[in-house]
User: What shape does this take?
Amino acid sequence: MAVFVTHILGYNALTAEFVAELRERKVPLIEDVCESHGAMMQGRKLGTHGLMSNFSFYYAHHLSTIEGGMVCTDDEELYEVVRMMRSHGMTREIKSAARREEYRARHADLNPNFIFAFPAWNVRSTELNAVIGRAQLPRLDANNLKRSENLRVFLENLDPVRYWTDFAVEGSSNYALTLVLREADGALWGRVEAMLHAHAIEFRRGTSGGGNQLRQPYLRRLYPDAYRDYPRVDHVHFHGAYIGNYPELEPARVRELCRLLNAV
Assistant: This one.
């Protein structure tokens, strides 16, 4: 058994009490930091609180290698397993010579260069992807400070009667501005979308993943009516979106965005 937590849109999804409880119960924590590169909880980066974590380098995120991502762990055995899993499950990917030799000795009837320990994939990054990603890494912290400032300006200038503004932002690294109506109002949301389209402001309705995943065909086949049990998620699905927040975005433009949203 393990607990899987996703940190979306640069927000921290953990609390110190929650992490302590998992450690007390000896339940492994797996962190999906796909959208929260550089975000922190209590001065410690997200992705370092659990047994393992993953990061996405999709082109819209904090760091991009065009496609691909990264898995992190400080568990040696798990590290070796993940190395094999990214390359057809082959034991020749193992860093430890002693571990490679163990497999070779147990399977003397096999070519030692082609021992497949797991059914797996070929998801190795290329050198070109790595160079692109590593070139951006030194700028990550500085860029996140600009993103955090833009989010602060956005939430401080947005009408708190119409829009949700009291997010827990401590330690966040938001690459997107979170826009959610405080109350369900289809007509108001229609006007918001129309205004954004009219001013060529790109947005994604439903925020991460396009909204309530329980409404998607791949899950509705398994759980046809489960989406009804999560009204808050459904609220964001129909009355929420995110707008890109990038380091070159000037605070003045964020204030203008808020002016347009408040005038809808």
